[in-house]
Amino acid sequence: MISFVILAAFTYTSGLRGATLTSVFKDVIIWVTVIAVILVVPMSITGGFGTAFKEIKKANYVTLSSSMVPAYATLVLGSALALYLYPHAINAVLSSKNVHNLRVSTALLPLYGVGLAIFALMGILVFAVPSAMHYLSQFPESSRGILVVPSLIVYSMPGWFSGIALLGIFIGGLVPAAIMAMAQANLLTRNIIKEIKPNMSSQSEIKITKIFSTIFKFIALGFVFMVPATFAISLQLLGTIIIVQILPAVFFGLYIKSLRKQPLIAGLIVGIFSGILMLEYANNFGLLTSSVFNTPFGSLYVAIISLAFNLAISFGFSALINKKVMISKKIKNR
What we know:
Helix 1 packs across helix 9 and helix 4 packs across helix 9 (about 160-195). It is globular, with a radius of gyration of 24 Å. It is built from 14 helices and two strands; from the N terminus they run αααααααααααααββα. It has helices at about 1-45, 50-55, 70-80, 85-95, 100-110, 110-125, 130-135, 150-155, 160-195, 200-225, 230-245, 245-255, 260-280, 300-334; strands at about 290-295, 300. It has a two-stranded antiparallel sheet with strand order 1-2. The chain folds into two domains: about 1-225, no CATH class; about 230-334, no CATH class. Strand 1 and strand 2 (about 300) form a beta hairpin. By secondary structure, the chain is mainly alpha-helical.
């Protein structure tokens, strides 16, 4: 609750510039933490990672069955395709200083994938730290995942360093939340409210955006307290199913001139509705617990199936319209 109040006050007064500068500060802390932990902890353990991998064999863990490999692969693909389509990603792109800075920043983004891989190694390394494992054993298995990295840091690093590292984790959660809330508020202000009031001044836009950004944050806070964590993940997967449907219009539509507006819109509508329908069918029109759909090729992530429908309509009907236009031109030329 306190963190959300800080977040609301911070973004209301500082806006995107404040979030961006804080993000640089956050990145420095997190990278120092990641490099320090992944070097210091293995050296402090007899046998290093070898001991950690031996200890993990004694634990109960879930492995991916062969039947779920297609589902997992398409989930990765769908999530990757949707990554840059979310409003907060577009908001960050449009606020960049110039094209050069945007290209450099985008080229360096894969470094975060390296950081995530190191975080995954921390999940293995924690098995070789008995004090951290004892602490984690006091919590249900379903809620231990979020505590693995903090417990590893606290029980294996000096107190002063742990404080700095935990600060980085705290800020690391606030910065994306701030940018997401601002992106949502901007979408509402620019695309809905300004359509109703086209003569609205820039100052009024900023004021309304700030107000709705704050409202969205506390709606999100309500979800934290009211919605189970597993259901929140299901909502995220549903969001990906919907947002990935704008890929043909936003990405292919910019580079492939043969695509027509009407098929792109039709493909978008079919993709969204088919995706939601398949998701509901897969869950027997009840609580969302699964986002995969059984097909002759195995279980696949619904977003990829619905995107395939979308692409088929967008490219297929665009080709038919272009062919019809060409035939009409030949007839006229005769």
